[in-house]
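User: As part of a screening pipeline, I want to sanity-check one entry by hand. Below is the sequence and the SMILES for magnesium ion. Please return the complex as structure tokens so I can compare it with the automated output.
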Amino acid sequence: MKILIVDDDPVLRQILQTYLSRAGYEVALAEDGRVAWEMWQKEHTRLIITDWMMPVMDGPELIRRVRGASFPHYTYIIMLTAKEGKSDVIFGLEAGADDYLTKPFNTGELRARISIGERILNLETNLSQALARMEELATHDPVTGLLNRRALYTHAEAELNRAQRDRKPLSFVMLDIDHFKQVNDQHGHLLGDKALHAVATTLAQNKRPYDWAGRWGGEEFLLVLPATDSQEAALVAERLRVSIQETRVPLPNGGAISVQASLGVATSTFEPGKAYTLDLLVHQADEALLRAKREGRNRVCVFDSKSTAVTT
Ligand SMILES: [Mg+2]
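Assistant: Here is the complex for your manual check:
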């Protein structure tokens, strides 16, 4: 662990550096609060031991700045100072210090207090990792690793709002694996999951960085294509269809199967008198998808309000 030592007394800095280095810590040194603040902004050292009285910027001001910064991880701060009055201790803690030690300090006590800080930082790290994992679970589909329906809905809604604001088209591509039930029936659900994963990987690889891809449910996937008209969306969908057709899902005892998919495209345009909602777009993409299924599967259909689907 790295510790940032902030003190205007060079002798004390040296003593602390020697002692803490010997104890196995990596040490950074700053001669006043301003230097420490600049260093911390670059490195975000998670444990700081700071003096109170220093020229340019004092300890309490440094602490206030660190506390005011929006950095995702916690910084544990121990104040080390000659001020020892009760009101000083209270002021230091109220400025945001986690702990307080008075000079001259006992090295054993300092070491013990650093250990407390490390324990708290470890707890915070574990907690934020658990939260990140929960966030991942809440927004992603475990089988495919893509966004789940709820998360996709949130992104799609934001994109529709943005498209309306910018007066740009927005396209949805609804994709359904053809004869997926047969894959499950013939090869088991484990292979079915592998096929879903393979299609999801193909989707993720073929989408553009600003597109959103997710599992809509079952063997159905939805792709949200910002600033994309129906012609362009049909090209993206066709490229996807071909890539999926070329994807091989290996069988456990050798060999491989391939899957195919049908895709439906719907686009919101901003002609006067037309109001699009998310549900309408999803419904239209579904309609186009059904038409692709009806017309023989393994194809792309674009939704057409006049019910004459354009097939590519
Ligand atoms: Mg001082």
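Points to compare against the pipeline: The first helix runs from residue 10 to 22. The chain has two domains: 2-138, 149-311.
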